[in-house]
Amino acid sequence: MYFRQFSVKTEASMATITIEIGKKNKKRVHPVSFLLCQGLHKKRIPTGVSVSDSELTTNGKRIREPEKAKMIDNKRRELQERLDALQLDYLGRATMDAGEIVSRIVAKKDELDFFAFADEWIDKTSIKGVKNYKTMLNSLEGFVGKRMLPFKSITYKLLEDYDRHLQDRPRAQSMYLGFIRHLYHEAMRRYNTDYETVIANDPFLRYRVPKQQIKKGVRALTLEQLLTIYNYKGRPGSRAQLARDCFILSFCLMGMNSVDMYEAKEIRNDTIKYNRAKTQDRRSDNAYIEVKVHPVIADLMRRYKGSGKVFSFSKRYSSASDFNRAINIGLKDVGEELGIDNLQFYQARHTFATLSRNMMHFSKSDVDEALNHVGTYDIADIYIAKDFTIINDNNFKLLNKVFGAKKKNAK
């Protein structure tokens, strides 16, 4: 196609909007489009308007038919205003490609689709838990009956109805609606500028995402149960023995998660230094922690010593999720042998926290810090230099108490 064009540059000189008069088609008229150019990339925006030869100026570069010329110019001005506002809002930030610019400036408020935005956001995000977002979208699609949901349709009533739809799945109820809230606010940040409010209503100002109800402390084992696991002897190399060993490692390493045992790379002077995978992307300190290795697990540290990583689990399992799955399958066998119902790996973390507080009387803030949770002393943290000595000293006292009791009981 050949075309004649009339260029209109933005004041920021970043992108240009061009009126394109296309080649005469089979109907003997010229289709009129806008052409957005961003660097070397171009994107055409159809106008739905066509002109005949008689409606063009003699040189064929401009539309002379008054009504059509006014219609095209008004539309161009509208797109120009949106483009200027968009470019002002993005000053100093990474540039967008032509396709994304077009999607932003031509979108009508009623046409913005939650699923389309969510899919685009998922493709670009680097956060963990993307699988859970995809599962939520599939659930929401099943609820609304189609994979299309304009932002204007996400109302207080729809959220309440979806909430009731998930009432038999409390974890999903809290998580999925929390994801919707997060994506909704991400869309508001993307589309709303200082110059234009595309998504005006925020239903989450009224609707409150339900919190997952957790029965506190019920997942912790008793000291006696922990010691039976410590004394467990499975077949060497079996999945049950691996599960037992990892459970004891987690307990002795202040509730270390399986993904961190799988991924941890640094150990120096018998101290494991790592960032907690679950929360490192959401915290300013990247969830960094240092855990000193107690002599009671020295044999396990040697048995599972890794190359390039603290532990060798990544040599045996292709992913952290496969590793975690294998541990819990093995713990099921251990639990059946020891008479501990539904034994799961995460109970090592709960047990560490419970015994630290209830048996050793460590402060809740110290237990929180040992678990690498977000602290509640934000101002104090500004003034106090980070030092993991206190929580590691506490951990050694706990392990001396626990496994000292074990030795005494064994006599």
Question: What does this entry show, briefly?
Answer:
The chain is of the alpha+beta class.
Topology of helices and strands:
Layout: E1 4-9, E2 15-21, E3 30-38, E4 41-51, H1 66-89, H2 98-106, H3 114-124, H4 130-144, H5 156-165, H6 170-191, H7 223-230, H8 239-252, H9 258-263, E5 266-268, E6 271-275, E7 288-292, H10 298-303, H11 313-316, H12 320-338, H13 347-359, H14 364-370, H15 378-383, H16 389-410
Antiparallel strand pairs: 1-2, 2-3, 3-4, 5-6, 6-7
Please provide a written account of the structure.
48% of the residues lie in helices and 11% in strands. With 411 residues, it is of the alpha+beta class. Strand 3 and strand 4 form a beta hairpin. Strands 1-2-3-4 form a four-stranded antiparallel beta sheet, covered by helices on one side. It is built from 16 helices and seven strands. The protein folds into three domains: 102 residues, no CATH class; 97 residues; 188 residues, Orthogonal Bundle (hpI Integrase, Chain A), CATH 1.10.443.
